[in-house]
Amino acid sequence: MKALFKYSKIKLIISFALFILAIIVLFPLMLKSLKAITETAITPDRSFGYDLSVLSEIKQLYGSEGAKTYFFTRFSYDIIWMLIYLFFFNNLVLFLLDGLTVKWLMMTKALPFIAFASDLFENSLCSLYFFNGQKVVGQLAVVASQMKWYSLLLTFIAVTLLAVSKIYQKIKSF
Questions:
Q1: Tally of domains within the chain
Q2: How many C-beta neighbours within 10 Å does residue 27 have?
Q3: What is the C-alpha separation between 33 and 134, in angstroms, rounded?
């Protein structure tokens, strides 16, 4: 477990390469699978701030075959993507925190894990909603989506601030 929170240059390089590779290869495959059945690339995962009415429209658009395909893509391709972005952002945050001793900054280590958990929760709830149509499940999917996007946004902000701090420290030490 400690290795998960220990910085390593090789892990950062590997995670960055996997991150770029996933964007180039995995995303198009995932969208192609979904589009082949639903005839659309619309997915709640790529939408920030959708509500229950939008989720209902997507459910209608997908139909039962689309719901099955959505489930398959979320729990195959998307799980791989989520693990890759977790690996990358975790290693990036650890790299940027390396050498810093400010205790409250250490909480930023949790942000990629919160995003991962929220994304997994959103995928599960959307899949369940597409199959059973219960409004409470759809509403929970909307909340999980917002948690995912806000935790990713906070991760980006933290990475930016940590990078600026790291650069500032390097300049200051000259």
A1: 1
A2: 14
A3: 26
Q: For residue 108, is it within any domain?
A: yes
CB crowding 4-22: b at 16 or more within 10 Å, else e: eeebeeebbeebeebbeeb
Tens digit of each residue's pLDDT (9 = 90 or more) over 31-88 = 787 777 777 767 787 778 789 999 998 888 888 888 888 888 888 888 999 999 999 9
Structure-token match 């192609």, residue found = 32
Tens digits of residue pLDDT in 82-106: 999 999 999 999 999 887 777 777 7
CA 171 to chain centre: 33
Q: Is residue 51 part of a domain?
A: yes
Model pTM score: 0.87
Domain that holds residue 116: 7-168
Q: Are 112 and 82 in contact (CB under 8 A)?
A: no
Tell me: the pLDDT tens digits for 38-47? Answer: 777 677 877 7
Encoded tokens for 163: 């990078």
How far out from the chain centre does Cα 116 lie?
A: 5
- In the block, which residue shows the tokens 């997908």? 62
Please report whether residue 174 resides in a domain. no
Residue 61 lies in a domain: yes
